[in-house]
Specification:
This protein has 4 helices and 17 strands. It is α+β, with helices and mostly antiparallel strands.
């Protein structure tokens, strides 16, 4: 008899995820990289940038476990975190304010009307400024380069060249290309683990907004809000720039349930 399990598909500004409720009974072996890779395959599986399991947490509202499309457990995923909040609301954890555990520690979030989710990210204290790039960790490592026009960039080819360069080949990095606009920025991201361009990347959009404030020389001590245009939708990043780095960082944007179903294997 074939094994079956229910799933839901969500996206946050085009960054899409398979969501599985693992609170009561485990539907799949989360250590099975081959299965997760198959589920995320866009031709032979459900298709997604990653898979997220919703788990119980003894002290918090839930725990989020994120797996890249290559089947391996990933670091923090910003849009995935926002979609997990929306999924938690859907499956009965209904509250306006959440606290949950992710790969990089404790997060809090607000669930607003029409699936808008505001997710608090971890503080960032260290930003490396290179000759033509910035490098920082916003829950996942991000290389950021400013360009004249995002639409003219071969994101996959150039992103792969950085991700597999001598410096980053072993651990990998996500690579972001940022175009400054009148009110905000446009961002395109090559994601490690997916090994391709994604329509948006939450931790990458966060990293890009933070370094934009450095590039623009914005003063410390004042709150900043930067609208971000990704290929999959519009988001915004709010934060406080200080002499010691960045804190009170919020990644805000839409989430949407695309469909639900039962997977048979």
């Amino acid at each position: 008899m074939a094994a079956t399990f229910p799933f839901f598909k969500y996206h946050g500004a085009g960054n899409d995820f398979i969501m599985i409720d693992h609170r009561e009974s485990p539907h799949i072996d989360l250590a099975d990289e081959t299965l997760i890779r198959h589920l995320c395959d866009r031709h032979f599986g459900i298709g997604a940038d990653g898979l997220i399991a919703l788990l119980k947490s003894p002290e918090l509202d839930f725990e989020m476990k994120y797996y890249n499309a290559d089947g391996r457990e990933g670091s923090m995923c910003g849009n995935g975190g926002r979609c997990t909040v929306a999924f938690a609301f859907q499956v009965g954890i209904r509250k306006p304010h959440y606290q949950f555990l992710a790969a990089d520690g404790l997060h809090e979030a607000f669930f607003r009307e029409q699936g808008w989710v505001e997710l608090k990210m971890g503080d960032v204290k260290v930003v490396e400024a290179g000759e033509d790039f910035y490098f920082l960790n916003t829950g996942s490592p991000h290389y950021v380069r400013f360009v004249d026009k995002v639409s003219a960039v071969d994101v996959c080819a150039l992103g792969k060249a950085v991700r597999y360069s001598d410096r980053f080949r072993q651990e990998g990095t996500n690579v972001n290309f940022v175009e400054e606009e009148d009110a905000g920025i446009a961002v395109a991201t090559y994601e490690r683990g997916v090994e391709d361009e994604t329509l948006s990347c939450g931790t990458g959009i966060t990293a890009s907004a933070l370094v934009t404030s450095l590039k623009r020389g914005l003063p410390a001590g004042e709150p900043v809000q930067i609208p971000v245009r990704a290929k999959g939708g519009n988001l915004e990043v709010r934060f406080l720039k200080t002499e010691e780095g960045f804190r009170d960082i919020w990644l805000c944007g839409p989430t949407k349930m695309v469909f639900g179903g039962v997977f048979v294997r």
